[in-house]
Amino acid sequence: TNAHLNCSSSSSSASSTSEHGSSKNHVVSDSQLLNNNNSNYGGEYGNDDGSSSSSNEGVTEFMDHIHLYKNINNNNELMTTDSGNDNDEDDEESIYSSSSGSAYSARNNDFYYRSLPKLSLEGLAQMLSTHQFHNILVLSGAGVSVSAGIPDFRSPGTGLYDNLQKYNLPHPEAVFDINFYRQNPTPFQSLAKEIWPGLSSKPTLTHYFIKLLQEKEMLLRNYTQNIDGLEVLAGVHPERVIECHGHFRSAHCIDCKHVYNGEECKYKFLNESSVPLCRACGGYIKPSIVFFGEGLPEVFASSIRRDLMQCDLLLVMGTSLKVQPVALIPQLISPNCPRLLLNRELVGDFEEDGSWRDVFIPGDCDESVRKFCQLVGWEQELDNLFRLGNDNSHEEDANKKCCSGTADDDGVILSVISNAHAEIITSEDNIIV
Length: 433
Known about the structure:
Blueprint: H1 2-5, H2 30-34, H3 55-64, E1 70-71, E2 78-79, H4 98-107, H5 110-114, H6 121-129, E3 136-140, H7 178-183, H8 186-195, H9 205-215, E4 219-224, H10 230-233, E5 241-243, E6 246-253, E7 259-260, H11 262-271, E8 285-289, H12 298-310, E9 313-317, H13 329-332, E10 339-343, E11 358-362, H14 365-376, H15 379-400, E12 404-407, E13 413-417, E14 425-426, E15 431-432
Parallel strand pairs: 3-4, 3-9, 4-5, 9-10, 10-11
Antiparallel strand pairs: 1-2, 6-7, 6-8, 12-13, 14-15
Helix pairs in contact: 6-14, 9-15
């Protein structure tokens, strides 16, 4: 198993970083990327920096920041498309050495791939437990947060898009469409009161699994399509998380892009049920999440190319893989990189049976993560992280709750009304709770 996957401990070596998209099944053409229209672009919610680039410009930027390898003749020579920066330090690395070129050509055909042994969850677990992966790239979607009480988007009956009838939208996705928001921001403002992060949701077992990968020094990056911020709340370092579709922590004007205070935007949306207006131009303010029709945050384009080259295991969890360009990531990793899908249904170009590099585990993310950790031997560590995280979360909630009390004329507390533990200090002039 280890031999045919070519997963060495040095995942950034030339042999493990040179074969992106060499198989026909995994090449994405320029036209495929450029033909994405606005309805296919943006977020499952939706921009961190509020950039005004169109969706096609954003896709072009995405394409220009990664290597797309193509067969250009019968000798399997390779060419790369890049942004034109000849000084890029990545270009200094040899695509493959002359001594390994012939071996690469022998591997670069469908017959070879199809003849390899079938990969299994047990095989991946063994490789993980023996530290054969060092740069795991996690791609997560709404499904990882379902057990936190946050609905996914497309599940029939329970998904968010199936429960927006009260907003009288022309189509469900309109609630996250920048052009619709410009005409009528009220539906999103109303929905935001239900989905605003940090109000009640806590990280799930799956989020703590990502944290565990980080503690094992195996996590390269977590590309999340979610805007709930639960990855960071679980303890994943912000530098390890790319929030592809933005977040609620900041806000900006949709017209002039003027930055607006995030906390003030939150107060207007949640407490006053109103949409704030830009002080500079009068346009509508919205949280910095990526809507359909907007470009992705710059950090996505600046990180994805290097991460694709370094990835030695792709872990996809809880996503429909329908929103581009994020949905293209599984097609753009090296064709000899194993891929694990933990999802309710088979998505993208993953293969269900008989694949030499794909493993699909159907079901809810938390259950599948636990099953995988049992095989690896990490279940106890995962439970400890989850328990500790929940304990800390409850303590923080308690500290945030307000206390109220009464005192007599001598400053002695007569009663305290609180759901949290309180330390009471009395004095002649002050009562400190």
